[in-house]
Structures are given as structure tokens and as C-alpha cells.
Amino acid sequence: MTSLPTHTEKKLGLVIDLDICVGCHACVTACKGWNTQNYGAPLADQDAYGADPVGSFLNRIHSYEVQPEKGPAQLVHFPKSCLHCDDAPCVTVCPTGASYKRVEDGIVLVNEDDCIGCGLCAWACPYGAREMDPVEKVMKKCTLCVDRIYNENLPEEDREPACVRTCPTGARAFGDLSDPESAVSKQVAARGGMDLMPEQGTKPVNKYLPPRPRDEPLDVLGPLLANVAEEPKGFLGWLDKTLEKLG
Asked: Of 160, 144, 177, which Cα lies nearest the Cα of 9?
């Protein structure tokens, strides 16, 4: 089985703001595009518009309707990918060492040349964040776009995960969560960033910022609208009274 490092020099990860994610799937599309043509084997995508589509994704969006104790129901869009856990069970269960956690930045990766497709890591991950590629028969997962963030051939502003770069609302941020002075750490501290399923003891690096409370909906047009419950007049008034007598 594979061992985890006792420490990592950085903890690179994502901070996802559930308050402003609109569920547009731009991050899913960008992730699929970048990871199909760069790091590792391409992500399968066969018969996408047919009766039996087959493919794999490293990032997915789930949408839930949540009813707070007070106020109206909220629609929460919940992006999910590998959380690059400090105590990653997907690494320790791997029989070949294909799954590993990097000391220099804490990113969890899969060496696809050593992956035998046994699926143990997917079974061990409590988040369902790994997928067996149905064509390549190797395990696929979020790499934090490791081939982007260190790529000196890209402009500085592009050296971040594709999902972060493409998010139209700024709901995703990337940085070193071991540095309390980093922008992502300050976000987590200010908004009460949360671990996903902390009871699992995996110590995920990625954090989620909770949705803010919503005010009661304000009907700004109500006072300007005519009262529709006025007493009917003319023929309709006579008909209404006649029907009442017949009833």
C-alpha cells in the first residue's frame, strides 16, 4: 500500500463559494476540455448525443433545494471534485503506488502508467470524487490542473486551474491553504469556510463557503398594481348577482 507524506510544503486547493455559484457548468466544461487534451489519458466522451453516452468527468455540479429554518427555500449549486485530502484514503489503499500525494504542494495525483484499474481508490473515497475512465480503464481525478499552474509558457493570469479561470461569477478561488496570509485562507476565515463531511477524518484541503442567509422576498411592484378584486360592474355585475340568486 502507498504511504502519505508526513507533511507537505504547501496545501494547494480550491475555495468554492456556494453563495454565488449559479450552476452554469462552465467549470465542468473547462475542466473536461483542458484535461482531455493535456495531462494523462484523454477523458472518455463517446456517443455524447446518442442513446448510450459514455464518458468521465473530474468535476461535477449537483443542485439541491434547501429549506432554511427561516425564510424562503434556496437552490444551492454544489460543485464537487477531488478535495486533495491531507489524510487521503484513496492513496493509502492503492496497491501499486499509482495514487500518491505530492510533498511540494499537497496535490493528490494518479500515475496512470502504474494504475491497474482495480477501483480500490474510488471505493475508499468517501466523496465519490474518482471515476474509472470507461475507455482507458484507468482512474481519473482532479489534478488541480498541475500542468497549468506550473506552466511558464502560459501568461501569469492563466496559471490556475481551468475551472477557476473560467468561472463567470468568481465562485472558485485557488491558492495555498497552509498560508494564513493567502487570499484563499483569508476568505475561509472571513466566511467560516467548511470541510465537506469532516466526520470522515480525511482532512480535505478544499473548503466550501456557506450560502449567506436570504431576506424575505420584497414585492417592489405590489403597491403599484391595481386591485383585481374590485366589485364587477355592468353586464358582468348583473350576471354575478343573478347567478348568486340561482345558487
From this structure: 177
Whether 24 is covered by a domain: the verdict is yes
Q: Name residues whose C-beta falls within 8 Å of residue 239's C-beta, 6 or more positions apart in sequence.
A: none
| 27 grid coordinates | 467549470
132-183, pLDDT tens digit by residue? Answer: 999 999 999 999 999 999 999 999 999 999 999 999 999 999 999 999 999 9
> In this structure, are strands 99-101 and 108-110 parallel, antiparallel, or unpaired?
antiparallel
Per the structure, how many domains does the chain have?
A: 1
Domain that holds residue 180: 12-209
Amino acid at 196: L
237 located within any domain:
no
CATH number, domain at 179?
Answer: 3.30.70.20
- Rounded to an integer, what is the distance from CA 227 to the centroid of its chain? 45
Q: Do the domain assignments include residue 129?
A: yes
Helix (H, G, I), strand (E, B) or coil at 66: strand
User: What is the C-alpha to C-alpha distance for residues 127 and 82, in angstroms, rounded to an integer?
Assistant: 8
Q: Counting runs of H as helices and runs of E as strands, what totals does the chain give?
A: 7, 11
What is this structure's pTM?
0.83
Domain membership of residue 229 (yes or no) is: no
How many CB atoms are located within 10 Å of the residue 210 CB?
13
All three cell numbers of 166, joined, read: 473560467
